[in-house]
UniProtKB/TrEMBL annotation:
This is Integrase arm-type DNA-binding domain-containing protein. It comes from the Bacteria. The keyword Transcription does not apply. Keywords: DNA integration, DNA recombination, DNA-binding. Belongs to the 'phage' integrase family. It comes from Ramlibacter ginsenosidimutans.
């Protein structure tokens, strides 16, 4: 290869003609001048069987000395049978890939929730999920790259709340674990999950069931339910009627508050709650007692609103609305959810109905997964008698003698 005369900085500055100008100092180093006058450094070299023109940057941003240094480095790679242009592309591609993986924990949470959003039963549950991580995890590791989250971060989140807020801490840990698993599968982190419980954090933290105090929902003794129903039926307002139906059907608060007229078949006396509104994601049919049907018949129907118990502004009433009814009635020994417990205690202590039937009435899963797979019947007609007996019990003052249904009849 013919060696070009080595030009100095002043000589390079004076070059004006468009085209490629050999600079010397390093074989193949050129200054390219375009017709518009722009200038850039180029290394012209044969790599393998191909001649390549490798850009080294613009002039004068890249000085003559810097251009020669870059050219020497490229020549050294070529001598080692490395294509510097290909190597640069690969390095840039690797950098872009690494940048794409550089997600913070907060970003991973957002991505996880977007990807798994259809799994949440409702917007409120999704918000609760997000709020717990925002409140407890984000302040400590929200800005940390998810690839760098360690056991120390997880411990820093959990230790302050593990004993005082055990149930919340347990949920936070589970949610962190899910986000980190999602991040690993997404290629944003590697290695084991530092939030894993079994065989990991279980060795560092006391078992939740051993330290948390289980607080059962307060419920009213079934014998005192008649007096409550008398007081409740005298109370005015949509929320009072909603609570009355909740007690008669042993349904959950959300199931009653979200009930719409299309779910109720007045002729057959069945309220069919769709799977999307059920905790177990399975349709639940509620046989309506005569008392429940009379209650439903008394409800006003609002044009343009399908809810049985709409809030004053037309939407679904708040979950605290029925609680407020109990407070107004000065019922401080029971909660709204505790009314289901009153029903369950009644079936256990005051009737001979099978346990399984009571559990089905409460929309609880009964038996093992195998048993559930074969138990196709929801005992609707047998439960119809159960719910009517419950309504009759509620209508009778304590001590008048509740009817006990023999197992054969049930």
């Amino acid at each position: 290869m013919r060696v070009a005369k080595e030009l100095g900085a002043l000589q390079v500055q004076r070059l004006r003609d468009p085209g490629f100008h050999a600079i010397g100092g390093v074989p193949g180093l050129m200054l390219r001048i375009t017709a518009s006058g722009s200038r850039s450094w180029v290394l012209r070299a044969t790599v393998g069987s191909r001649r390549r023109d490798m850009g080294l940057g613009g002039y004068p941003g890249v000085t003559l000395a810097a251009a020669r240094e870059k050219a020497r480095e490229a020549r050294a790679l070529i001598d080692k049978s490395v294509d510097p242009i290909l190597a640069r592309k690969q390095a840039r591609s690797a950098l872009i890939a690494e940048q794409a993986k550089a997600k913070t924990f907060d970003q991973a949470v957002t991505a996880f929730m977007d990807a798994k959003g259809d799994e949440w039963r409702n917007a409120k549950h999704r918000q609760q999920w997000q709020n717990t991580l925002a409140q407890y995890a984000s302040p400590i590791m929200g800005k940390v790259l998810v690839s760098d989250v360690t056991q120390a971060h997880v411990e820093a989140v959990l230790r302050p709340i593990w004993r005082e807020k055990t149930e919340t801490a347990t949920r936070v840990r589970q949610r962190i674990e899910k986000v980190l698993d999602f991040a690993r599968v997404s290629g944003w982190r590697e290695g084991e999950n530092p939030a894993r419980w079994r065989g990991h954090l279980a060795e560092l933290f006391p078992t939740p069931s051993k330290i948390k105090t289980v607080v059962s929902q307060r419920y009213r003794n079934p014998r005192e339910m008649h007096d409550l129903m008398v007081t409740l039926r005298a109370a005015k307002g949509t929320a009072a009627r909603a609570l009355e139906l909740l007690i008669l059907t042993a349904a959950r608060s959300g199931e009653v508050r979200g009930a719409v007229w299309s779910e109720v078949d007045m002729q057959s006396g069945v309220w069919a709650i769709p799977a999307a509104r059920m905790k177990a994601h399975k349709e639940h049919r509620v046989p309506l007692s005569r008392d429940a049907l009379e209650l439903l018949k008394s409800l006003p129907r609002i044009e343009g609103n399908s809810l049985l118990f709409p809030a004053p502004r037309g939407g679904v009433m708040s979950d605290m609305t029925m609680t407020a009814v109990l407070r107004r009635l000065q019922v401080d020994d029971a909660t709204v959810h505790g009314m289901r417990s009153s029903f369950r205690v009644w079936t256990q202590d005051h009737t001979s109905y099978p346990r399984e039937m009571a559990e089905v009435a409460l929309a609880h899963a009964v038996g093992s997964a195998v048993e559930q797979a074969y138990a196709r019947s929801d005992l609707l007609e047998r439960r119809r008698k159960l719910m009517q007996d419950w309504a009759d019990f509620l209508a009778k003052p304590a001590g008048t003698g509740a009817r006990v249904t023999p197992i054969r009849a049930a």
